[in-house]
């Protein structure tokens, strides 16, 4: 990989781009009308005032939700089925965990957004590179604020949030008809992976933002702790009671169906309030396990509402 990059640099200036560092939130004009300085985690970075071709790790949903052109993302985020064909029309899979440098160069980005501090030096030889941190972007509103400032798309952010609220209100009305009041109910998010059980906060996909920011459910106290921390935790069956809530949402891959059957026979599981009240809701793992950006959250509003209504019948 480095060999390819070195050859390209030596060969002649296929790559001529500025960089520095990035991660925070404000922009100020520089001497060029086409560039602005963005204060970021890796320092002050001169970025395009209105970037046209963006390669982004982890956050293609956030960028696309603001109407910006994503030309590449990592292999994990690329399959996001909630993004429209139009949002993905120029998007290619650039590999994971690192971007494939040849593919990255071929996409000719004018801005690169990465979560990998070890790759900033290489990426910034291709285009201005902004380093972001998961904890600084916790929650849909924070992440949209950040990317709207970086991409100069405040109007697009306002438009998206307006449409998001409109859809959320529509789904809340549907829940009200079956006497489900999100603001008066707590939730927890669980996932099975082999013989392990994991719990998640509200910003680690699994419908967290759709359920809290969108529909207005309250987090269980233990879930709230995860939201403020690393975002997830492995849970043993003996401590499942700590994640009891009015509603428990659980997802698992098809290969783990037997694991769920075993869990349902566990006394610790059977003793949960949500289990006793029939408020355990299984979700499609392939749809919810990884994708949690703004557009995904908006599309998941009806997905979770319909699942809740089905469970209450």
TrEMBL record:
Cell compartments where the protein resides: Cell envelope
Sequence intervals crossing the membrane: none
Annotated Fe/B12 periplasmic-binding domain residues: 51-312
Pfam family, one: Peripla_BP_2
Biological-process GO terms, alphabetical: iron coordination entity transport
UniProt KW keywords: Signal, Transport
Cleavable signal peptide: 1-18
Annotated SUPFAM superfamilies: Helical backbone' metal receptor
InterPro entries from the UniProt entry: ABC_transptr_periplasmic_BD, Bact_iron-sidero_bind
GO cellular component: outer membrane-bounded periplasmic space
Family annotation (Gene3D superfamilies): Nitrogenase molybdenum iron protein domain (3.40.50.1980)
Similarity section: Belongs to the bacterial solute-binding protein 8 family.
The protein's name in its UniProt record: Iron complex transport system substrate-binding protein
């Amino acid at each position: 990989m480095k060999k390819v990059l070195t050859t390209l640099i030596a060969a002649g200036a296929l790559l001529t781009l500025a960089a520095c560092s990035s991660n925070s939130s404000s922009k100020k004009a520089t001497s060029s009308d086409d560039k602005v300085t963005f204060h970021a985690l890796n320092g002050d970075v001169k970025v395009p005032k209105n970037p046209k071709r963006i390669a982004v790790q982890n956050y293609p949903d956030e960028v696309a939700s603001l109407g910006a052109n994503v030309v590449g993302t990592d292999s994990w985020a690329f399959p996001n089925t909630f993004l429209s064909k139009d949002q993905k029309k120029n998007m290619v899979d650039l590999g994971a965990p690192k971007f494939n440098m040849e593919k990255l160069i071929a996409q000719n980005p004018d801005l690169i957004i990465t979560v990998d501090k070890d790759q900033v030096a290489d990426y910034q030889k291709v285009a201005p590179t902004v380093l972001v941190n998961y904890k600084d972007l916790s929650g849909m509103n924070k992440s949209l604020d950040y990317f709207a400032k970086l991409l100069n798309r405040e109007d697009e952010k306002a438009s998206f949030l307006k449409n998001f609220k409109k859809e959320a209100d529509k789904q809340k009305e549907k829940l009200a008809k079956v006497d489900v009041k999100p603001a008066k109910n707590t939730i927890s998010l669980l996932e099975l992976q082999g013989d392990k059980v994991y719990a998640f906060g509200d910003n680690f996909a699994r419908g967290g933002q759709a359920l809290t920011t969108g529909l207005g459910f309250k987090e269980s106290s233990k879930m709230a702790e995860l939201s403020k921390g690393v975002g997830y935790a492995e849970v043993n069956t003996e401590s499942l009671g700590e994640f009891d809530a009015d509603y428990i949402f659980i997802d698992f891959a098809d290969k783990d169906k037997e694991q769920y059957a075993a869990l349902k026979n566990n006394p610790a599981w059977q003793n949960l309030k949500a289990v006793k009240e029939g408020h355990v809701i299984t979700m499609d793992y392939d749809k919810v396990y990884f994708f949690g950006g703004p557009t995904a959250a908006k599309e998941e509003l009806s997905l979770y509402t319909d699942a809740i209504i089905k469970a209450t019948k």
